[in-house]
Amino acid sequence: MAQDNYERIVEKISKRSGLGKDEIEAKIKAKRSKLSGLISKEGAAQVVASELGISFEGENLKIDELLPGMRNVNVVGKVIRISPVRTFKTKNGEESKVVNLWIADDSSNVRSVLWDTNHVSLVEKGEIKEGVVVEINNGAMRDNEIHLGNFSDIKVSDETFKEDELVTEKVFHKKKISDLKKGESASTRAFVVQAFGPRYFSVCPECGKKVESEGQDFVCKTHGKVIPKKKAVMTLVLDDGTDSIRAVMFHESLRGFGIEESEIENQEILSNKKEDLLGKEMIFSGNVRINNFFNNPEIIVEDAREVNVDEVIKELEKE
Ligand SMILES: [Zn+2]
Predict the structure, then answer these.
(1) Positive or negative, the Cα torsion across 156, 157, 163, 169?
(2) Separation of 222 CA from ligand 1 center, angstroms?
(3) Ligand 1 centre from 232 Cα, in Å?
(4) pLDDT one-digit tens code per residue, 18-44
(5) Distance from the CA of 212 to the center of ligand 1, in angstroms?
(6) Which residue, 76, 174, 194, 281, could crosslink 237 as a Cys pair with Cβ 3.0–4.6 Å?
(7) Per-residue CA distances from 311 to 112, 163, 261 (Å)
(8) Cα of 16 to ligand 1 centre, how many Å?
(9) Of 145, 101, 144, 150, which is closest to residue 123 (Cα–Cα)?
């Protein structure tokens, strides 16, 4: 199994500082407890690194090594997806453009957001397109995205990647619930201790966005009057012994529980299934965000799957 990015950061700090890995890890642990666990392991590692006078700025990093808050990020990756170019008006009324690129290397993949019209024009001219390897310099991390402004640079690189070593699937880092941080894509092994819902809402069949009801009709902002699709959402509380967290399960992710589409659509059947979920231990993967109403973290589940016993044993042997 590949080294996780925390281990890789520790190794880098160790190499650069000449201190042993154990010593570095002890410093990280001390830093975290001083900050009452409010900082992730990786974040604490960054603080320790800078206290030791080590900076990763300006260094070429693997995508998996990028951390929220990093500046002057340099990274090379192959473009695996590009969004349409979007035009918008800035605060002072000028027209500007933005485009998203997803780039992958052999460690992970990341969304890159291009705000500079010169960079956007490289996409419009087709110089940067899917399958092209690009080099990004001076990017800045916002949560888990690289943002490129007019101080940043992006150009076509002649570096190559073997197709089969590219990591193009979304990467979820394995975390304990108490370690989950906002903006993170993570997976966690936990028990379902409470289940609420389902609630249903209506979406546009074309774009999947929420529709508004106007009298008898349902209206999508983009597609006008539509016959909406009904989607379910359930809220769970997960607990892994370190902490608990709310988990939002939208329609498709409920399939991970082995619930059929026709059952998800039926409120009565789905309500009855709730009982079966309680006490289940599964691996939940998704994105951590702050719930606006409760102002605490919750995970938007993208994937829920059964625990693979062999994998768990391997993990335990590693510890
Ligand atoms: Zn629509």
Answers:
(1) negative
(2) 5
(3) 18
(4) 999 999 999 999 988 887 767 778 888
(5) 11
(6) 194
(7) 32, 26, 29
(8) 52
(9) 101
Tell how far the Cα of 60 is from the centroid of ligand 1, in angstroms: 41
Task: Extract long-range pairs of 314-318: CB within 8 Å, 24+ residues apart.
Answer: 314/1
Residue matched to tokens 């607990």 = 239
**How far away, in angstroms, is 144 Cα from ligand 1 center?**
28
Distance between CA atoms of 249 and 226, rounded to whole angstroms? Answer: 25
Can you spell out the DSSP letters for 164-207?
GG---SPP-EE--GGG--TT-EEEEEEEEEEEEEEEEEEE-TTT
Amino acid letter for position 119: H
With left for phi above 0 and alpha for psi between -120 and 50, is residue 192 left, alpha or beta?
beta
Q: Give the pLDDT score at 71.
A: 81
| 102, amino acid identity | W
User: Residue 117 half-sphere exposure, CB side, CA atoms within 13 Å?
Assistant: 8
With beta carbons less than 8 A apart as the criterion, state whether 203 and 218 touch: no
Mean pLDDT of 160-167: 89
Distance 215 CA to ligand 1 centre (A): 18
What's the 283 CA to ligand 1 centre distance in angstroms? 32
Q: Which of 68, 51, 67 is nearest to 17 (CA)?
A: 51
The closest alpha carbon to 149, from 135, 134, 139, 157, belongs to: 139
Within 10 Å of residue 314's Cβ, how many Cβ atoms? 11
The Cβ of residue 17 has, within 10 Å, a number of other Cβ atoms equal to 16
